[in-house]
Design brief:
Layout lengths: L3 E6 L3 H14 L9 H4 L1 E2 L2 E2 L10 E7 L5 H8 L4 H6 L1 H5 L4 E2 L22 H15 L5 E6 L16 H9 L7 H11 L4 E3 L9 H10 L2 E4 L6 H14 L3 E11 L2 H6 L2 H19 L5 H4 L3 E8 L8 E9 L5 E9 L2 H21 L4 E2 L22 H16 L7
Parallel strand pairs: 1-4, 1-6, 4-5, 6-7, 7-8, 8-13, 9-10
Antiparallel strand pairs: 2-3, 9-11, 11-12
Helix pairs in contact: 1-3, 1-14, 6-7, 6-8, 7-9, 8-9, 10-12
């Protein structure tokens, strides 16, 4: 069977940690912990029996900086020298193609040198599609997972409402069309499943939702659920289950990698803030219990702190209310490794989207909401944030897909 190639717009700490981890796991030098696609079981059988094996996975990328995966991984400081040395030759062979990049959307990276040029957005799309075709020249199946920077928040406009208007906007260089949307459009047109790992408004617009259905391509998003929000989707359902009141939830983070630098700009932080703030209302449902959750004060902060590097630290102060309105507090200090948590998410999304595409699924794959801060819902369905409900939905869909496909050889 042909291999699966995972393409990542963005060759940074997350994508290089993914690549190195898969290479090390193949050599028996590290374990792919955190990947449900490796460690999950379905009705007593390993899920990975249904999926492309690790030894048939390869990679490709785009980035506005012309550094090999090895150089990026070394600079990012996520992995040990011992781990990097073991896969150095393989990582050095992965060099990104030039990126579609516009500093209007990521001002912190202004002056990036490895950037495509063209007469229109559509011209840039054609270049992305050429890159995609070169990556699957040997017949590989291809999946694309956005691992690039968070773009400045822009509310969708008229150009995003239909495929006809969007394609006209591509030809006319409409300034409301973001670079990530060019990748999303190019992937769908090329028949490549697409997942959005950032809080950008990307494929979650009517134009690209329609296109994904029309072209029979699975899409999913958005914003990888890694650190602080992961904790919220574990803790908040427990508080609700016990009907303990919540008066306030204050969250703050320090992060020092390129993601932290980008999020230091208020326009880019706004994109992240929106995905983070929407979680608690969905989990606690204050409209159902206004006396317990209707007056909740929820604040989120992210601070760029270079010494932290990729080792993000999150603090949560949770003010809760118990019997007879007596106040209590919960303090959470999560010293996590951002890319170590995100890498298995990328692997799972790529393999499950490949499975979905092979089984004939198309359009929004909301069953993958397990992996996202802001799950992309199918029209008419509410967004579910409870991690345990999301896990059940995920497993039910994998079971359904397994019934339509023979195991991968």
């Amino acid at each position: 069977m042909s291999e699966l190639r995972i393409l990542t717009p963005g060759l940074g700490a997350v994508s290089t940690t993914l690549m190195a981890g898969v290479m090390l796991a193949r050599k028996g030098l590290a374990r792919p912990i955190g990947a449900l696609s490796e460690y999950g079981d379905l009705d007593g059988k390993p899920i990975n029996d249904l999926l492309a094996p690790l030894d048939q996975i390869s990679f490709g990328a785009w980035d506005p900086y012309d550094e090999s995966a090895y150089e990026v991984a070394e600079r990012s400081g996520v992995l040990s020298a011992e781990h990097l040395a073991a896969v150095a030759d393989e990582l050095m062979e992965i060099v990104p193609k030039s990126a579609v990049f516009d500093p209007t959307w990521v001002q912190a990276l202004s002056g990036a040198p490895h950037v495509k040029t063209g007469d229109s957005h559509m011209d840039l799309v054609e270049q992305i599609i050429e890159d995609i075709e070169s990556y699957r020249a040997d017949g590989q199946r291809v999946v694309m997972v956005w691992c690039g920077s968070t773009e400045a928040y822009h509310h969708p406009t008229a150009v995003h409402q239909s495929l006809t208007d969007f394609e006209l906007g591509l030809k006319n260089n409409d300034s409301a069309i973001a670079p990530s949307q060019l990748y999303g459009y190019a992937a769908i047109r090329a028949g490549v499943p697409f997942a959005n790992g950032a809080p950008n408004v990307t494929v979650d617009i009517p134009a690209l939702e329609q296109m994904a259905e029309q072209y029979g391509v699975p899409i999913a998003g958005k914003d990888f659920k890694t650190g602080q929000t992961l904790m919220k989707t574990v803790i908040a359902p427990g508080l609700k289950a016990r009907r303990l009141g919540v008066r306030g939830w204050f969250s703050t983070n320090i992060l020092g990698n390129r993601d932290g630098l980008v999020l230091d700009h208020p326009d880019n932080f706004r994109s992240k803030e929106i995905t983070k703030l929407g979680v608690l209302d969905s989990l606690l449902k204050p409209e159902e219990h206004p006396d317990l959750y209707g007056d909740l004060s929820h604040e989120v902060r992210i601070n760029y702190y270079p010494p932290a590097g990729d080792n993000k630290e999150g603090w949560d102060n949770i003010d809760i209310v118990g019997w007879m309105d007596y106040p209590m507090q919960i303090k959470v200090n999560f010293l996590c490794r951002d890319s170590i948590l995100a890498a298995p998410i990328v692997l799972d999304l790529a393999r499950f989207l490949d499975l979905a595409g092979s089984a004939g699924n198309s359009g929004i794959q909301d069953w993958l909401g397990f992996y996202f801060k802001s799950p992309h819902p199918v029209e008419g369905r509410s967004v579910e944030h409870d991690l345990f409900v999301q896990e059940r939905v995920l497993m039910d869909e994998i079971r359904a897909l397994s019934g339509r496909l023979a195991p991968v050889d």
